[in-house]
């Protein structure tokens, strides 16, 4: 599993190491809260499961469209 991270292909596919880390953290949090793993656990930790799910392409990073982000900011500004 760790060997898969030595190749930068996974990082490039997601858009960089920061995005990979953010996705892994989010997925680990979901697993800790009781989400079902998308790969066989086989005694692996939540971190290892999350990384394996990312490497296999079972989860991806979905970022909001720029218009959606702007809309959210406008709504929060008008709430003040």
Structural account:
The protein has helices at residues 2-6, 9-14, 17-32, 46-55, 66-78. By secondary structure, it is an all-alpha fold. It has one domain (2-78): Eukaryotic RPB6 RNA polymerase subunit, CATH 3.90.940. The relative contact order is 0.15. The model has no long low-confidence stretch (mean pLDDT 86).
Give a brief rundown of this model.
With 80 residues, the chain is mainly α. It has 5 helices and no strands. Helix 3 crosses helix 4 (46-55).
The end-to-end distance, rounded to whole angstroms, is: 47 Å
Order of secondary-structure elements = HHHHH
Low-confidence stretches: none
Beta-strand percent range: under 5%
Largest sheet composition? none
Total number of beta strands: 0
Please tag this protein with its features.
single chain, 80 residues, 5 helices, Eukaryotic RPB6 RNA polymerase subunit, mainly alpha
Topology:
Elements lengths: L1 H5 L2 H6 L2 H16 L13 H10 L10 H13 L2
Helix pairs in contact: 3-4
